[in-house]
Amino acid sequence: MTDRIPLAGVIGSPVAHSKSPALHGHWLKRYGIAGYYIPMDVSRDDLRDALATLPRMGFVGLNVTIPHKEAVLGLADLVSDRAALIGAANTLIFRADGKVHADNTDGVGFTDNLRQGAPGWDPAAGPAAVLGAGGAARAVVSALAEQGVREIRLSNRTRARAEALRAEFGPKIVVYDWVQAGNMIEGAATVVNTTSLGMVGKPEFRVPLDGLSPDAVVTDIVYAPLETALLKEARARGCVTVDGLGMLLHQAAPGFERWFGLRPEVDAAARAVVLGE
Ligand code: ATR
C-alpha cells in the first residue's frame, strides 16, 4: 500500500472545463512528486460507487465539483464544520483508516486570496458588502463571519435566498434589496461580487458604485475576464482590488497539501498555468 503512486482527481459532470488537473499537474511536476491528478466524469448514479472504490485503487482524495458538492456530504464518514456550515464539500480526503473526510476549502481560499492580494486587508475594519446569495456566497459569508466581520451586508436578485442566509448565519447579516444594492456599498470596508454578473457570456455588472470608499478592498469571484468592470471601476476610485483567479488557486492548495504532503505555492507560475499561458 505504501509503495502506491498517490492518485487524486476531480469528480463532477461535466469536468472537461475544470482547471484543477492543469493546476495540480503543475504542482506535482514542480515539486517532483510521483503522483497523478485525473479529471473523472462521474454521474449522480455512480457517485456512491466511485467514493467506495477509488480509495481502494490508490486514490488519496478528490476535488468535487458540480453537481456533487452537496451530495458528497451525505456519503462521507466525516464532515468538517466548515463544510457542514457551507452545506457543500469541494475536497475529499481518503484516510488511511478507510474513512472519507469531506471538507470545504472555498472559504479559506477566499480569505487567503484577499490576504495575498491585499496584504493590509483588515476584515474587522468595517462592514462587508456581499453581492449574491448562491453557493459561492455561502462560502464567502461563512469565511467573513469566521474572520470576525461584525456586519455583513447581503443583496441578491432573489431576496429570499439572502434572507435564508440571514436565517442561517444570524443577525450580523443585513439584507438589502437588490435594487438598492448600491446603497450597501457605502461605508463598506470589503466588497465582494459572488454573482455571475460580469462573467464572459453573462449580463454586465451594473450595480452603482457611487458610495464606494477608496479605502475599501474589492474582490470578484468572476475571473473570466480577470479584469471585471467591478474591479476596473473600483481601482479607478482608488480601491485595492483582488481578482477571482486567486480564490480558485488558494482553494486548491489545502487539498494538494493533504493528499501529497506539501503546501504548494500560489504564485505567478500557478496563475499562468490556470490561464493557459
Ligand atoms: P454559485 O454557486 O456560483 O454562487 P449560483 O448558486 O447559481 O452559483 O448563484 C449565482 C448567483 O448569481 C446568485 O446570487 C444569482 O442570483 P439569484 O439567486 O437571484 O439567481 C446571481 N445572478 C445570476 N444571474 C444574475 C442576474 N442576471 N442578475 C442578478 N443576479 C444574478
From TrEMBL:
HAMAP family: Shikimate_DH_AroE. The active site is at residue 69. Gene3D superfamilies: Leucine Dehydrogenase, chain A, domain 1 (3.40.50.10860), NAD(P)-binding Rossmann-like Domain (3.40.50.720). The gene is aroE. Its EC number is 1.1.1.25. Pathway: Metabolic intermediate biosynthesis; chorismate biosynthesis; chorismate from D-erythrose 4-phosphate and phosphoenolpyruvate: step 4/7. GO terms for molecular function: NADP binding; shikimate 3-dehydrogenase (NADP+) activity. Involved in the biosynthesis of the chorismate, which leads to the biosynthesis of aromatic amino acids. Catalyzes the reversible NADPH linked reduction of 3-dehydroshikimate (DHSA) to yield shikimate (SA). This is Shikimate dehydrogenase (NADP(+)).
